[in-house]
Structure to design on (471 residues):
């Protein structure tokens, strides 16, 4: 590991125009300032909650652009943030340098080794399409337009997590530019401490320019959604809760209490009302999937049923995440289990007749492979969690902190931890330590001190570097 005493950085100061001009020369002009016409277009991400206004945006088109931008930021004491798709925004980038990696989108698949390589700005739909040609699939999440790198660095809680574990469990190689400007190739045997930290520690240790990861032999799923009217929320929650206790690992599912707005973009049956959406992804024969899902169809009658044998390329239809830009706050809590009392508490706060303003309250069923340690240890925890609870809510008013009544009330059934990828817009100083157990967080802070002692990469879900030991 590099020494924590190397590479001193001056205090922040605005780079003079000639320095910015030099940076523009090195990155072929791809530097934007707030007054530039393309600035707002490049800045716009999926979740608009952050209100980013960085001093500079460097539009990276290559690994070398990333390296030059990091060296520039370090030289001038600028904090660095990274954005590909903007699905998981964290700290405001005001006054800092934002690296936009969205144009680095190359994807390649090796069908023999069943691996894929995705560059910094690649989105999951690219990998899904490329892998499908060979009867393979990645461990993507609910939205095919989410970025591969950001999702995976946060753990990657995907649609087949019970069968195959977290996406980070399948990463074999990481290309990253660290705060000293070095472009490193990190593997289980090369920089193993950094390899451990990057998988789960998000963007704290450098700018990942590419990932290599394993694919799985899943060409089709028995998947889709069952929708129930909000008046049946209690029955649907308890039905699903009991159903999850009978399932093989091939079945991954979630349940969402939806309060979608009354706007034309919302499908008519779901518009302006509470609905219950059970999402199903079965990685096995469709006839067996139909048998497993039958209790959800016959015990209660869904008002809409889209569960069917589908090609993996249609996986985005399971959750039906909106494709256009959104603005929302997100929080999470890992639950040890979903007992009857826990479900009752959830229904009291978010069920039929509750005064709830969350757009989405979702429970994801874990266990199976998600509960087992991977072959290569990582900073991804939560192996003891039975369910992941997440809320998607309207943003707080400017200058105010959004209250979290639902996750606070569910704390007695929680593990005490949150999930790092489900904290968009949350207060990072409070939430980030809660995404890791104390031993993991301590080790992450130590790795941070070794590779980014001056916290250059702090416009993120930040883990500050551990203090240097006293002499």
């Amino acid at each position: 590991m590099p020494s924590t005493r190397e590479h001193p950085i001056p205090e922040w100061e605005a780079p003079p125009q000639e320095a910015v001009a030099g940076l523009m020369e090195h990155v072929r002009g791809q530097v934007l300032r707030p007054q530039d016409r393309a600035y707002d277009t490049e800045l716009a991400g999926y979740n608009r909650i952050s209100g980013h206004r960085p001093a500079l945006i460097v539009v990276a088109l290559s690994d070398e652009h990333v390296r030059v931008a990091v060296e520039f930021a370090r030289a001038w004491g600028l904090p660095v943030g990274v954005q590909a798709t903007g699905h998981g925004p964290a700290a405001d980038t005001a006054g800092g340098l934002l690296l936009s990696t969205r144009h680095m989108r190359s994807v390649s698949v090796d069908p023999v080794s069943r691996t894929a390589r995705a560059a910094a700005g690649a989105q999951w739909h690219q990998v899904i399409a490329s892998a499908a040609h060979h009867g393979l699939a990645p461990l993507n999440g609910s939205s095919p337009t989410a970025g591969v790198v950001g999702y995976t660095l946060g753990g990657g809680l995907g649609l087949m997590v019970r069968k195959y574990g977290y996406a980070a469990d399948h990463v074999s190689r990481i290309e990253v530019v660290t705060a000293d400007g070095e472009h490193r190739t990190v593997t289980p045997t090369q920089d193993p401490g950094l390899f451990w930290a990057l998988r789960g520690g998000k963007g704290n240790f450098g700018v990942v320019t590419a990932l290599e990861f394993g694919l799985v032999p899943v060409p089709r799923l028995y998947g889709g959604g069952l929708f129930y009217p909000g008046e049946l929320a209690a029955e649907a929650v308890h039905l699903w809760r009991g159903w999850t206790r009978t399932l093989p690992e091939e079945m991954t599912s979630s349940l969402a209490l939806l309060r979608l707005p009354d706007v034309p973009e919302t499908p008519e049956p779901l518009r302006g009302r509470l609905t219950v959406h059970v999402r199903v992804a079965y990685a096995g024969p469709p006839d067996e999937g139909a048998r497993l899902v039958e209790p959800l169809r016959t015990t209660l009658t869904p008002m809409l049923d889209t569960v069917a044998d589908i090609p993996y390329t249609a996986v985005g239809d399971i959750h039906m995440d909106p494709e256009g830009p959104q603005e929302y706050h997100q929080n999470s809590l890992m639950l040890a289990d979903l007992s009857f009392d826990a479900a009752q508490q959830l229904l009291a706060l978010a069920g039929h007749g509750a005064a709830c303003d969350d757009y989405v309250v979702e429970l994801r069923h874990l266990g199976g492979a998600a509960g087992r340690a991977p072959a290569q240890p990582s900073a991804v925890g939560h192996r003891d969690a039975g369910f992941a609870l997440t809320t998607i809510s309207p943003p707080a008013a400017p200058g105010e902190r959004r209250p979290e009544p639902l996750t606070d009330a569910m704390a007695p059934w929680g593990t005490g931890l949150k999930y790092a990828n489900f904290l968009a817009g949350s207060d990072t100083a409070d939430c980030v330590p809660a995404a890791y157990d104390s031993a993991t967080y301590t080790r992450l802070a130590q790795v941070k001190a070794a590779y980014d002692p001056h916290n250059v990469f702090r416009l993120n879900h930040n883990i500050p570097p551990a203090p240097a030991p006293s002499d």
